[in-house]
């Protein structure tokens, strides 16, 4: 719901994951999340918030 999305952004979220409609969609979403967090995202090291 648009209201929920806007509320989450207002609280500091910067993205959201849409629910998949079937099992294959769920597996694809999990794979994309895994690729993002373990292969693409660069997280701060030792409290460095600059990226």
Automatic annotation (TrEMBL):
Record GO biological process: phosphorelay signal transduction system
The UniProt entry, under InterPro entries, shows:
CheY-like_superfamily, Sig_transdc_resp-reg_receiver, TCS_response_regulator
Q: What superkingdom does the record give?
A: Bacteria
Which residue range or ranges hold the Response regulatory domain?
1-34
Task: Please give the Gene3D superfamilies that the UniProt record associates with this protein.
Answer: 3.40.50.2300
The name under which this protein is listed is Response regulatory domain-containing protein
Q: Which source organism does the UniProt entry give?
A: Rhizobium tibeticum
């Amino acid at each position: 719901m648009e209201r929920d999305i806007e509320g989450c952004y207002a609280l500091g979220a910067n993205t959201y994951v849409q629910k998949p409609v079937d099992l294959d969609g769920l597996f694809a979403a999990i794979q994309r999340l895994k690729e993002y967090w373990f292969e693409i995202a660069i997280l701060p090291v030792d409290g460095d918030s600059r990226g």
